């Protein structure tokens, strides 16, 4: 088996708001979109982030068509965590967890997209 691409797909109420958040704040670009669907990419990430509107009839399995978010972190490893912290703080991006360093060397902070998706930026120090 050869895996040729990867993605994470998240159900959200407002697809456009989450897409704009990743575009405006984290440099993602729209690869494709339709009503209730958008796939975003960045060459250096290695996977696409897909947002689906909650309740799409085409979502399978229907029993799992609820909103994403509870217990989910979208984690992006960066090489300039302090610069990103200052940049996003200055832009008034909603902060879920201010910047901190764990004893095992993980320096990170978390922001919230408009649908409550927690996006964690991390650097290993």
Automatic annotation (TrEMBL):
Question: What PROSITE patterns does UniProt report for this protein, alphabetically?
Answer: VOC
Protein name, UniProt field: VOC family protein
Q: Which Pfam families match?
A: Glyoxalase
All copies of domain VOC, residue ranges: 4-124
